[in-house]
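Before relying on records like the one below, remember that each one covers exactly one chain. Contacts with other chains, cofactors or solvent are not represented anywhere in the record.
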Amino acid sequence: MEEDNMQQEEEKSSFSSNDYNPCPICLGPVTHEAYLDRCFHKYCYNCIARWAKFFAAQNSQPTSILKCPFCKSDNFSIVYECEGDSFQRHYINQDPETSTFYSRAHKFRLRCYYREPGAISDKFNVLQYWKVRRYLQPNKWLQIWLKREIQALTQEEDVDIVVHHIVGVIESFMRQNEQGISKRTIEQNREYFKASLCDAARPFLMGRTEHFVNEVELFLASGLTIEAYDDVYSECLETPASSAISEDEEMMPHKLNTELPYLHFFDEDSDAE
C-alpha cells in the first residue's frame, strides 16, 4: 500500500513538473526543446518551426527577425539540440544554402569536423614542428584559413572579431617564445598553446572547440597552403574537396550528417525526426 502511494506521488509530481512550464503554443509538455535567443522562451521544436513559417508568411519581404509568440519580443535565432556545452543554432532567414559566403569549400570543411579527430594526423610530423620551433615562423595563410574554418563551424559570415581574438592569442604565444620568456618544455609548450586556444575559441565554438584546436595545430604543422591542406583531407577521406564536389554531393550540412539538423521554415514538412 505504501509503495502504491509513493508511486502515485511520483506520478503526480512528474505530471505537475511537466505541466508547470508547458509549450506556450501547444500548451502541452515541451518535446524537442528549442529556445529563442533573446527572450529565452522555450517551445517544442515543431511548434516554433511552424510558428516561424506562419510569421514569415505574414511578411511581404524576407525578415531576419522572429517575434516571440509569447512575449512579442524580437529574436534573431532559434537555439536547439542543447546537449551539455554544445547546441545548434539557426539564424532567421539566413540559410547557408542561399548565402553567398557559404561556399563548397565551407561545406567540405564542415564535413571534416564530423569525422574522427586526427583523421590526417599521421600525414604530418607534429612533434617535429614543436621540436624545431617552427611555430615561431609566421604562417601567411593562417588568418584566411581561420576565417573559413570558423565560418564553416558557426555558419555566420561576420567572424572577423573571433578570428582577430584567436590570432591575437597565437601571436602572444609566439612573442613569449621569441623573447625567451617561456621556460616550458616542448610538451608543456604544446599543451599551453592548445589550452590557450581552447580558452579563446570555446565561447564561440562550444562543443567543437577541441577538434578545432587540433585542426589549427595540424594546419600549422603541415606548412601547406589552404588548397593543399584540403587536398590531403580529400585523399584521406576519399571525399572530393571544394573544386571537385559532384552534383550528388552538393548538399547542405544537415544532409551530410544526421547530427546536424537545420530548420527549413519554408518547406511543407518541418517535423523533427
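The chain has two domains: 15-94, 100-256.
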